[in-house]
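A quick aside before the break. I want you to see a complete sequence-to-structure record at least once, exactly as it would be stored in a machine-readable document. Don't worry about memorizing anything.
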Amino acid sequence: MASLAGLLQLQGHRITGSDKAAYPPMSDLLHTLGIPVLEPYAESNLDPVPDLVVIGNALSRGNPEVERVLDDRIPFTSMAALLHDEFLAGRESLVVAGTHGKTTTTSMLAWIYQVAAQENPALEPSFLIGGVAENFGSSFQLRPTRTFILEGDEYDTAFFDKGPKFLHYFPDALILTHVEFDHADIYADLEAVKIAFKRLVNLVPRRGIVLAYDGSPNVTECVSHALCRVERYGFTAQAQWQLRNLRHEGGSILWEVWHNGKQWAQLQMQLAGEHNALNATAAAALAASQGISARAIQSALASFKSVKRRLQVRAHIAGITIIDDFAHHPTAIRETLRALRSVYPQSRLWAVLEPRSNTLRRKVLAADLVESLRIADRVMLAAVYQQQRIPEPERLHPEEIVQALNAAGTPAELHPDADAIVSSLVPQLNAGDVVAILSNGGFDGIYEKLPARLSEYTEAQGQGA
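That is the input. The structure line, written in tokens, reads:
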């Protein structure tokens, strides 16, 4: 929504917004753009009456602004519908979808096109991403060129449109990264998730292409009836775009990409994790299918900086590294912790988790969550965010997660909030430790509270010595 606001402002519209509570990095972006965000929601936020209200999918009947929009018949729409009507019509739509990896992969693809535009300005892309791409310092860009790159979200569109947002985007080319059960608040089961992705694949025209991960039976099923060309990427010998000889060197990854059995390129990035090599290979394969040279792709990936809140180092204090990651699913947590293990193999790794996403707040993937968190050496778990809004039979019980971790030999603690976690964690930290803060929200300001308390504590310890 913040990215769309920025795009609309570039078109000359006057934009205002409302939220229950805005938090970085998007609140910072909106402040920089001069777009006011009123907090909390209130009917008076719609004075003077706007020409159009874009209603986000987090809102439902009962919200005071939604009620006024309906009562006064103020024109309204959804983010996805407006994005299609204002920006995608008449352009080439390149969509990155999947239950994991889509924000980073979309950022990589946009940067590849931006670098390629140094030789061919017609390739400079417009884009919209669900995070701040550090190479651009923004989550959006609008150019008069034909290519529009965007992240395709499988979450529903609005309270008045319960289909996935990505069905509004009509991709000319599509990347499909992973398909797993997620968004337990709107999808009944894995089959329902797969149906959504099958419908997306069915929108790609015959002249288009789908780049699909080859390590997932769910992805295979979703692309099995595509009417366009499908190429697979991954580690198997059957993948048209095969990763080989992946290795980590410090915080970097290096690997070879073989295309149809022939070595195509050697790639490297200043990022960690097998998942990022897969994401980069997907972006490279789609870009190559659209005519971008291997040389431009290599240069772009070598200079790619990542996305804010994806393995982002927030602080380094007294030899202790604090990292922020937008974890929302047990698989994402697993890949984050595995990546940190590869970068900091000798460090004691702490996982500090707030169960905040609509999936993590439910018990449906509790066993997977325990297995993912066991990769860490120590775990701090916060209370479930707004647990009272989850039906009792569906709720995750964090005390059971902590009990299971301790029983499996991974020391774990449960605390009610960020302040309690910080108070317990800081005295236990030693030089060389790595702390991964995992949440898809503001986590009650822990990203600022932990470094501040750690600095105070280490300074006091030094003075005491």
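Two observations worth writing down. The first helix runs from residue 2 to 10. The chain has three domains: 2-74, 89-302, 312-464. We'll return to this after the break.
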